[in-house]
Amino acid sequence: MSRFRAYPTPAQEAALLVHCAHARLVWNLAVEQQSYFVKGGVARPPGNAERMRQLTAAREANSWLDEGSSIVQQQALRDFDHAMSGFFNGTHGKPTWRKQNRHESFRIVQFKAEHSRRLNRRNAEVFVPKVGWVRFRMSRPVPDGVKSFRMSRDRAGRWHVAFAAIPQPLPGPGTGEIVGVDRGVVHVAALSDGTLFDYHRPDLDTTVKRLQRRLARAKRGSNRRTQLKARLAKAQARRADARKDMLETATTRIARNYDIIRLEKLNVRSMTRSAKGTIEQPGTNVKQKAGLNRSILDKGWGTFAQRLEHKAMGRVEYVPAAYTSQRCSECGHIAQENRESQAVFSCVACNHSDNADVNAARNIAAGPAVTARGDLGKTRSVNREPQQLAPTG
Fold first, then answer.
1. Residue 49: which domain range?
2. What are the distances in angstroms from CA 65 to CA 18, 27, 55, 60?
3. Is this model's pTM higher than 0.85 or not?
C-alpha cells in the first residue's frame, strides 16, 4: 500500500465526506442485517449479490443516495463481504459498526493509469468520481499495476490517498548472517549485535498529556472542549507518525542487513489484556498491569513483527520466549537473579554483565540451538546447565 498526503479544496472535501458517509451507511446497514439474521436464526443472511440488488432498490427509492457514487457504495458492500469471509476463516475479527469522525474512508476500483497525472516535481492529481481531480503530494512514484485506491481522513483532519499495490520484499545481503531481535518496553528493539532502536519523543508525550488534562477539565458540549479535542487529535497523530516512522526505518534496516531474523514468539493480544478480572474474582495490581499494557502497545510490538514479515518474507523465524531474558548468553546459566533490573543483566555464575535486552537478543539469535529449562530431553540430567546443542547435518 502506497499512501500519499492529499490536499482537497474545501468544496472537494465536502464531496469526499459525502462519499465517506454513504460508504459508512451501506456498511452499517450490512452489519445490522447480518446481526438480525444471525440472532433471529430464521433464515440465512443475504449474500453479496442480493445485497447489491437491495442497494439498487434503495438508490431508486432515495434520491439523496442516488446522487452519490454507485462505485463507492457497491465497494463498501464488497469490503463487508470480504471482511465476513475473513471472520469465517478465522483470520480477522467480526465486522463492527463504523462511526462518524473515526471511520472516514471509501475505496475506488476500476482505476486506470489515466486517472492519475503528475503536475510537477512535487504534486500530482487523482480522479475521484463525482469529485474531480484531487491534488496529492507525490513523495515517490505511483506504483505500477494499481487497480484501486482508498481515500481516507484521519482524526486530525488530514486526507490521504492510498494506492493498492503489494510491494516487493526487500532482498537480504546474502551473507547468511543471523540476528536475534528482542522487543522490550525500555527499547523498542535490541539486536544481538548490540544495536538498539528507540522511539522516544518527550516533547510530543508532554503535549499529549497536557492536552488530555485540559480536555478532562473542559465542560462537555462547550466550544473549548471541541477545540481541545481537535488539538489533541493532531498531537496524537504526530506522535503516531513518529512511532510509525521509527518502526518502518528499523524494520527496513534489519531486513536489508540480515538474512535470517529471529524473534520471540509472543502473543501480544493476550499479554495486553486487562487485569481487572470479574466481580467474583477481581484482579490484582490492575494499575500496574494497565501501565505495562500501555507501554507494550506504545512500542508497537505487533506492527514491528508484521512489517518484518512483509519486508523479509520467508526469512523471519520465531523462537520460544521462555527463559531468554534469564539465560546468560555467555555461559548458559539460567537464574531469575541474573536480572538485576529491567535494563541490566548480570550473571551470578560467570559475572558476565550486559544490557538485558541485548543479552536476550543473543539468546534469541541462537534459536533452536539453545535448550532451556522445561525443554529437557529424557537423556539429559535435569541438574546440568543448559548447553549448546551440537549442529545437525
1. 2-163
2. 10, 14, 10, 8
3. no
